[in-house]
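re: the backbone from monday

yeah here it is again, tokenized this time
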């Protein structure tokens, strides 16, 4: 009788321990999933923010670190994947797709910012960190206009439609900067700028005429 009681007690202990282990595993799996979900959501938020990193080495390093962190979260979560219900497994697949999409958008955003930054530097001839060009002073404007138009004339055959959109935006920003400094410009500077504006208009009209002709072919 005593042996039977002992056997029953041992069986109950084993069942209790197994249940505790199961509950613990479920809780750990849920924690791993929540951390995985939170990480993917944060990547999506970060992707929607403005990209400011321009240096390719720094960007490549941050991209590698991001992927390593994702891989670690994936590894932590996949340990429990078999124990997840079908609905939860579907959520995991969803999160993987969301991460891939966010990662791709992140790279596209960086490439677009890098392209805009490079073209802006080529057109203006100086390091400019803001789209309003507020670090260009009145005395720099005539030379900046000349640099812009000369650079455009040199590169016009190699610019695609997206490049031209960036050029038009930069030109508009440069003209806005000129208007804000109008009272600081002497007549010589005004004449130089006016000449460059005429040249830009000629180059721009030629591009638009060619683009329209190519579109109708």
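seq for it, each position gets an aa:
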């Amino acid at each position: 009788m005593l042996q039977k009681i002992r056997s029953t007690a041992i069986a109950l202990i084993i069942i209790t321990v197994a249940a505790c282990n199961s509950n613990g595993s479920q809780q750990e799996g849920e924690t791993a999933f929540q951390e995985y979900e939170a990480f993917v959501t944060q990547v999506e938020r970060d992707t929607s923010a403005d990209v400011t990193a321009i240096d390719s080495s720094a960007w490549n390093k941050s991209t590698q670190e991001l992927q390593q962190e994702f891989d670690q979260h994936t590894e932590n979560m996949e340990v429990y994947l078999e124990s997840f219900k079908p609905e939860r497994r579907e959520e995991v697949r969803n999160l993987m797709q969301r991460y891939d999409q966010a990662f791709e958008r992140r790279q596209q955003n960086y490439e677009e910012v890098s392209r805009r930054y490079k073209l802006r530097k080529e057109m203006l001839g100086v390091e400019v960190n803001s789209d309003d060009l507020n670090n260009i002073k009145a005395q720099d404007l005539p030379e900046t206009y000349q640099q812009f138009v000369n650079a455009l004339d040199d590169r016009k055959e190699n610019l695609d439609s997206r490049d031209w959109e960036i050029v038009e935006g930069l030109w508009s920003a440069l003209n806005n900067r000129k208007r804000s400094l109008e009272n600081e410009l002497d007549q010589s500077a005004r004449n130089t700028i006016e000449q460059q504006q005429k040249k830009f208009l000629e180059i721009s009209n030629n591009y638009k005429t060619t683009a329209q002709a190519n579109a109708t072919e």
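Confidence is low (pLDDT under 50) at residues 1-23. The chain has two domains: 2-117, 125-216.
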